[in-house]
Amino acid sequence: MNEQIEKTDVKTPKATRKDIHLPRRLFHLTMGVGSGTIYALFLTHNQAVYILGTCACLLYIFEQVRLNYPEYSGTLSRVTKYFLRAEEQLKESASIPFVMGLLLTILTFPKSVSLVAIYTLAISDPLSAIIGIKFGRTRIVPHKSLEGSLAFFLSCFCIICFVYSPYLETKSWTLLFVAFAVSFSVSVFEMLPIKLDDNLTIPIFSAVTMWLAQTLLLL
After folding, report:
1. Residue range 47-60, pLDDT digits in tens
2. In a 3-state reduction of DSSP, which class is residue 92?
3. Which of 22, 93, 142, 157 is buried deepest, with most CB atoms within 10 A?
4. CA-to-CA distance for 118 and 39, rounded, in angstroms?
5. At what angle are helices 198-216 and 111-119 packed, to 10 degrees?
6. CB 149 within 8 A of CB 191
7. Is the pLDDT of residue 17 over 70?
């Protein structure tokens, strides 16, 4: 009888990918924008790697405890219910590829390129999901709408212009072309039915595309 009561009292997440799940989206945005801004203003490359690497280790340990010690699920669910989807109850959450995407991006690419990738993941990804779920009417591919993809494209375009704003006076047309080409490429990539978690693929693809454009056009 007590076991039944305990199971009933545990509130498990019911949100899926088709739900706006606003607390999760806001947490996604806050963590990404916060990480990128702190990296841009206060941290060196090595400091960012050490801090984010430590966070990735701690998060991985937390996920293992959550999955392998179900007796603590009642306590942990008081927090995780706001951020986890229903399908993440029995597997690792998207927080692991999210942190790994940021870490791999910072490890591999210059700061300006990494910032574009981080902000794209933090802003464009949740914004496109919210717009697509709330206002999406025109389907391009299954689970992707024209409205959501347009929100992704426009926000990514603005992010690139913001990060590379020092070049606006001297190389304005080059920057606008790069911003358009990279934003369009990443928006198309985001629609592809890739089975890997987009929290990992979006920042890496964004960084590779931005780095190639920057290198080829000497931005």
Report:
1. 999 999 999 999 99
2. coil
3. 93
4. 10
5. 140
6. yes
7. no
Whether this model's pTM surpasses 0.90: no
- Taking residue 103's Cβ as centre, other Cβ atoms within 10 Å add up to 18
Instruction: Give the distance between the most distant pair of CA atoms in the chain.
Output: 73
Cα-based angle 54, 57, 63 (whole degrees, multiple of 5): 140
E runs forming strands in the chain: 139-141, 144-145
Q: How far apart are CA 171 and CA 217, in angstroms?
A: 10
Helices 146-163 and 111-119: crossing angle, nearest 10°? Answer: 150
Structure confidence by residue, pLDDT tens digits, 63-82? 888 888 877 666 666 666 66
**Whole-number Cα distances in Å, 42 to 34, 176, 195:** 12, 28, 35
